[in-house]
Design goal:
The protein has 396 residues and is mainly α. The chain contains 17 helices and no strands. It is found in: Cell membrane.
């Protein structure tokens, strides 16, 4: 089905963006001559752009529709990727690299929220749990991007060439697949949009979903930003081994997401979320105290399995009512992004004081909170809306 394949291509492209940056972060750090804390502050530029963008994403999606928001956000992201590579490895400017990271964060955040709205519409239309699979293709993108990063790091391809090439691939994927996206059919006008968004911020369940995501998003974001460096510096491995570790983490996430629909159908959202928190907690603790590269790699499998399903499940839960989906997804994403984007840079500052591995233990507190709030994901179906949407979706 063209719609399905187009949405999958968008999620795949988003994964490529994330892993391209992460896999070459040691090279960027070395090229700019930065410490852990300075890398954290540099990443905070991306966090600032993302947090600002995701805070406004609900209104943007409600105003422009998810299709146009995805295309605009992805285009800005791809252009920013190319600038990051150029400014960090050719110009050698920390300030300009920070500006480019801000732009990438701004584009990626709106793109991701709109993708979840589009994906949730498809899930309702098909009448089954497919959000984990869509996020699984995001993870496929991160695996592919990490593998490319390992290769290009090994052959010492300049970061600028790497980032320009991947930016071009992202543009091809998003504009090719975007032709089949379904336009949003429910609009309430500017005043009504603001009312929906304001109401979503006052809903206890929506806020609790956001706080639950916050804990697990910190665990996912910290792995994305710091695993490669933690293996390189904390375990004394080469940069390429750090990229391999990140690849193992995202591979575990990919497997969990591709199989997640079946697991959710059997056990339900709440039980799966609690089990996920337990796995993530075990993975983080084992990674910090494993004392060998082999144990660290095994820990990354548990860590990746644990964090894999939280975000897609929360997006599904926030989208149970179609007309409120964009507003609720925006609220949950905004709260979650506070940890996903702001937490990892702050961990860099903590790492300067206690060491990078020990700093990762701070993740455990919020993972425990996510376990306690898993009940917020309990399904609240809207059968009449789902049945209507389902009739409009062609059979695969």
């Amino acid at each position: 089905m063209a719609w399905r394949n187009g949405v999958i291509a968008g999620y795949l492209a988003s994964g490529l963006v994330i892993s391209t940056l992460v896999s070459r972060l040691p090279a960027i750090r070395d090229g700019l001559g930065l410490s852990h804390g300075e890398v954290g502050l540099l990443l905070l530029c991306m966090s600032a752009g993302s947090f600002l963008s995701v805070s406004l994403s609900g209104l943007v999606v409600l105003r422009l529709g998810s299709k146009r928001t995805i295309l605009a956000g992805a285009t800005l992201t791809a252009l920013a990727m190319a600038l990051i590579g150029f400014f960090s490895s050719v110009v050698g400017s920390v300030a300009l690299t920070g500006v480019a990271l801000f732009l990438q964060g701004s584009g990626t955040a709106c793109w991701n929220v709109a993708s979840n709205v589009q994906g949730a519409a498809m899930e309702r239309g098909l009448g089954r749990n497919i959000m984990p699979v869509l996020h699984g293709f995001f993870s496929v993108g991160t695996v592919v991007g990490a593998a490319i990063g390992v290769l290009f790091s090994w052959i010492h391809l300049p970061v600028a060439w790497h980032f320009v090439l991947l930016a071009a691939i992202v543009l091809i994927l998003i504009h090719g697949g975007g032709r089949s996206y379904r336009p949003d059919t429910r609009h309430t006008g500017v005043g009504g949009n603001r009312s929906l968004l304001s109401a979503a911020w006052r809903e206890p369940r929506t806020v609790l979903l956001g706080i639950m995501v916050l804990g697990m998003a910190l665990a996912e974001g910290a792995a994305g930003d710091w695993v490669a460096l933690a293996l390189t510096d904390g375990y004394g491995t080469a940069n390429s081994i750090g990229a391999v570790g990140y690849g193992i983490f995202v591979t575990a996430m990919t497997v969990a997401r591709l199989l997640g629909g079946r697991v959710l159908a059997r056990f339900g959202r709440v039980a799966v979320m609690r089990g996920s928190a337990v796995l993530a907690l075990a993975g983080v603790v084992l990674f910090v105290y494993g004392h060998s590269v082999q144990m660290a790699m095994a820990a990354l499998v548990l860590w990746g399995l644990g964090v894999a399903l939280t975000f897609p499940v929360a997006m599904s839960a926030a989208s149970d009512e179609p007309i409120r989906a964009a507003a609720r997804v925006s609220v949950v994403s905004t709260i979650g992004y506070g940890a996903f984007l702001g937490g990892p840079p702050l961990l860099g500052l903590l790492a300067d004081r206690v060491g990078l591995l020990n700093a990762l233990l701070a993740i455990c507190v919020l993972v425990v909170a996510s376990f306690a709030l898993a009940g917020a994901t309990a399904a609240r179906p809207a059968p009449s809306i789902m049945n209507t949407d389902k009739d409009q979706v062609p059979e695969q």
